[in-house]
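Fold it.
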Amino acid sequence: MQKKIKLQETEEGTILFNVDPIIIKHHYEIDYIHSYAQDSAFFAGLANKKLLGSKCTKCSYIFATPRSHCMECGAKTEWYELPKQGEVHTFTTCYFGSEAFLKETPFTLILVEFEGVNTLFLSRLVGVKPENVKIGMKIKAQFLRNSKFKSTDVYFVPA
């Protein structure tokens, strides 16, 4: 007769949020090492209270969100320090967010327009009630005092 093998079980259950389709709560946590590679200068800039985009070495197109090559002509780009002031190009109010932003909901995401820069920069607008945000509103960059080397190290406030 073959011996029965059983896995040890606990009394823990699973929280069921929905039946069809099944939606359950499952905690997941992991530490990992991540490299910003060619984007490292952008995050180092944030830590030094600088906002860096990129400028094409051939056609001078300026990207608020940095990239290694120009999307207009394909040439290499170089780092370019963006102005710290701009204006709201457009915005949306977020009533739901990831765990990092749950305490801040509702929060406002904006596309920042900088004078002389060809593209827009996505960030948060802080210190303004959603109903008071206006397209064209003058804003300025603020930086976290202690950098986390994340894109959320920069945010915008009314100028």
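Residues 41-158 form one domain.
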